[in-house]
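Morning - pyridoxal-5'-phosphate inputs below, output right after.
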Amino acid sequence: MNYNPLAEALNAELSANGCPVFDMLSAQGKAIFFPSKGILGQGAEAKGSEINATIGTALEDDGSPLTLPCVQKSLNLPKTSFLYCPSSGEANLRAEWKKQMIIKNPSLADKNFSTPVVTAALTHAISCAGYMFLDAGDEVIIPDLYWDNYELVFENGRGAKIVTFNTFKNGGFDTEALKAALANSKSSKKVVLLNFPNNPTGYTATETEAVEIAKILTDCAAAGNKVVALMDDAYFGLVYEEGVTRESVFTKIVDAHENLLAVKLDGPTKEDYVWGFRVGFMSFGFKGATAAQLKALEQKAAGVVRGNISNAPSISQKILLAAYQSPEYAQEKAEKYATLKKRYDIIKNVLASHPEYAESFEPMPFNSGYFMCIKPKGVDAEKLRQELIAKYSTGTIMLSGLIRLAFSAVPTEKLEKLFANIDACIRGMK
Ligand SMILES: Cc1ncc(COP(=O)(O)O)c(C=O)c1O
C-alpha cells in the first residue's frame, strides 16, 4: 500500500521502537493523515500577511467576519464565533477539557495521554474510532445490553461485526463473560467497547469490577494480543451509589500495557446537558507512549474529522469554553446532578415500598446515568410498550426484551405514577 508521505510519517511514529499501535489501525486508519501541508497548512503559513487570499471564509473590508445581521442578532457572541475552528478543535477548549478530565479523574494527573481531539459529539467520536481501528469483518466486543446506534456506526458504517457477551451476573457486571469473549475471538487484534454509565441499563461497574475489567484487558494484551479498548463515557460523572467507580476505566488502562491502546470517547452532550451542541472528544493513551506517538494519533483523528465533517461547530466550542472557565460551572453542575440523583433515590424508594411490583417486573441492576431498565414478567415487552402508550399515556423504549425508562426526562413528581402505570398495565395484560 502506498501511503501519502504525511501518513507514512505518522505510521513511522506509531511503529517506532516496536510500538504496536500501527498494527491496531484499520486500513483506512493507516492511510489517514492530517493534511497539514494542504489548504490549512498554507493558510496557517500566510497568517499575518498584508493580503491573505487563502482561507474560504468571507471577510468584510475591515477584516472582520462577513456575517448576516439577522443571523448575528440571535447570538450573544463575538463575530469570530462564525469562523471555523481547527479540525482538531479549538485549542483552548482541548486544553480545558483535558484539565477537566483530570479534575474529574484525579488519578489521570500523573498519567500520559493525548490532548483530546474535538469531534461533532460522541456518535461522531465513536464513528471516528471505527474508522481508525476497524476494517470490514473485524469484531467489536460489546456487552449485550448496548446503545443500539453502535449497530449503525460499526456494522452499517464500517462493515464490522458486533460480538456481544453477557452483561449481568448475580446483580453485577459479568467480568467472566468479558474474559471469555476476548478468549473466544479468533483475531489477535481485539477491539472492545465498554460504556459506563451504561445506556440502556444505567449501570456502572463497581470499583472492584473496574479493577477486574482493567486486569482482564491488560492480561489479554500481555498475552500478546493487540487490544483497542474504546471507553464510551457519554454519561460520565452521574454515579449515585457508593462503591461504584467514580473514575473512568480509562484511568486504569491508559498506562497498563504497550499492547493496550485506551481510547476515551467523551463529551459534554449528556454530562453538561448540551445535547444539540454536537461537541465530543477522543483521547488516546498506552503504556510507554511518546509525545510524538500521542501526537500522531491526534493527527490521524484530526484527519478523520477533516475528511468527514471538516471541523465541529465553532459556536458550541466557544460557548463550552466560556462555561468551563466560568466560576459558576462546578456549582451549577452539582445542582443538576442533585436533580437526577433525587430522581434515582425516589425510584429506589418506590421500588422498595412496592414489593408487589416484583410480580410484574424485575428491575435490572442500575446505579448511575440517565436510565434504568425493567424486565417485564409474563408479558411481551414490545406489546407492553405499545399498551403503555395507548392506555396509560406513558412512553418507554423497548430494547432486547427490556423496557428502558429514561428517568432523566421524567419530572420528579411523576416517577411514582410511572411505575404504578407499568405495574397496572402488566397486570391488565395478564
Ligand atoms: C452510550 C451512548 N454513547 C453515545 C451517545 C451519543 O451521544 P452524542 O449525542 O454526543 O452523539 C449516546 C446518546 O444517546 C449514548 O447513549
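Note: Residues 121-123, 147, 195, 199, 232, 234, 267, 269, 275, 280 surround pyridoxal-5'-phosphate (CB under 6 Å).

O.
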